[in-house]
Structures are given as structure tokens and as C-alpha cells.
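Chapter summary example.
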Amino acid sequence: MLSERRLEVLRAIVQDYVGTEEPVGSKALTERHQLGVSPATVRNDMAVLEEEGFIAQPHTSAGRIPTDKGYRLFVDKLAGVKPLSSPERRAIQNFLDGAVDLDDVVGRTVRLLAQLTRQVAVVQYPSLTRSTVRHVELLSLAPARLMLVLITDTGRVEQRMVDCPAPFGETSLADLRARLNSRVVGRRFADVPQLVQDLPESFESEDRGTVSTVLATLLETLVEETEERLVIGGTANLTRFGHDFPLTIRPVLEALEEHVVLLKLLGEAKESGVTVRIGHENAHEGLNSTSVVSVGYGSGGEAVAKLGVVGPTRMDYPGTMGAVRAVARYVGQILAES
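The structure predicted for these 338 residues follows.
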């Protein structure tokens, strides 16, 4: 275990390196921070921190920089989540309150996160499997053609065309709409198949084929993998950190193009609380020089999807964690009220 003083030295090194982008020396530490000890003592503490792998010496510089292990200790033990200021919170609320539908909410969230953190923002669309049914609408387009509209509690809308085996009258359509909604509204998607399996039997024999076709379309909609959708914004922010990436930024950009990789990273986020993956903790090699800060968001205290940011390991962790957490909270409120 490191002593309190050495933890303070590590905290100061991380803060200075993040702020100045320059390796940090003992003289600069004693000048900038009230450590209460001499530069010689700080040099000794830095030697111990280096020996234990928390800091490293880049090139032949006299200064030191934090390692992945050092950042991890900083995040776990030394960094609180920096709360946003009142103007920042108002700006978030005003920006997100103007959204007109779910696509707009997700799009605004990505732009907002990228602006607040100056990193790459990643937002997952709410998962259908974690959602509940708000309403099922059935519209007649032709005697034997319907439109099925599924609306979720998160405001997501899915539309499907249904070609019926026989003409289906307005009276039968209204009956099916009412019976279907009475069974599924407010219920989780995972429960819907069980809730509707015997519905065709309650209709006249000539209508059962159409009812079964409508239900099959509904169930297909529930299990389709359209839920695995991501929106990414702020990739250009990475160009500001070119020197933070060894040799080239290309592996990072290539990894960001692979949505499967990003979905896996977001999937590691906790349901509540901010998750931070630093450097080599990210399994994908292209992201070994980055940190991923992510959190779940949703309504009613249950996460329906994840959002987060990707940036260099030399990151303002307290500020980034605060911004990610605050944006997730506001998005959850919007979904609950939509």
C-alpha cells in the first residue's frame, strides 16, 4: 500500500500531466502543490512510484508521466466525480429538452457529450429487450394489408408492413387492436410472446390466419437486432490529441468504426455508476492507448442502454465522469417523461 503522501504525489503528477501535457518533475511538483516536503523527498517518492509501475519516464526526459496502473489508482482512490456547474446543468437541460423524438434525443446527446468532454461520444439506442410496450397501433392500408406500429416506453417507434392471408375488416381490426393492447401495454418485451400465444384462438376461424400473421410480425420486431444501434460523434476531437497516441491515431479510428467493438465496450458498463476502462484494460488492441468512460441510462432507475466517451488515457477523469453521469441522468428523465 502506498503512503498518503505518495498518493498525493501521484495525484499531483496526474493532474499536472493532464493539464500541461508535459512530463512532470519533482521541482515543478513542489512549486505547484503544497506537498509539505522537499524536492528531494518528492524525488524519492517518485522513484518508489516508478518502481511500483504507477509512473514512467518517457524518453530521456527528467519528468514522469502516469501509466495505465497509475491512472487506475487515481480513478479508484483519488478522483472524485466533478459535479457540473449550474450553468452547465441548465445548458444540458435546455439542449436536450428541445428534442422532438428518440432519434433527436440520441443525436443531441452525442453532440452534447462530445462538446462537454471534447472526446469521442458514443450513444447506444435504447434496447428493445429491456423496454416495455407503450402501445401497438394497427392501420389498414388495403383490404389485405396492414401497418403495425410498435411504440416503446423509451419513445422508440418501429413500423412494419403486414400482408394478410385474407381481407381483414375494420371491425375485426379494431377488435384485434383492443385485445392486443389490453394484454401487452406496460409489459416487458420478453413477456409478450407468452401473453399473446393463445390470442388467435379467441377470434373467428376466418380471422385467425391474419391474427397469427400480425402476431408473428410483432414477435419478429421484438427480436430483431435493430436494437444494436450506435451513434458516434466528435471523432475529430481526437486530432487534438495526436501526440497522445503512439505512432499514429489510425488504430483508434479503425476500432471506432467497428460498432461491435464499441457495443462490447459499452456492454461492460455498470447498470448504475460510471465505469472507466483505462488503456490496456480495453480488450481491443486498437484502443489500448485510450480510456473509455461509460454509464447506463434509462427511465425508472433501470438502464435500457449505455452511453460514454472514448479519449486518450491523458484525460480529465473527474470532469469526464461528471459530464457522462449528468448527461445520462438527463436523458433518463427525458425518456421517463416522453
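To summarize the output: The mean pLDDT is 86.
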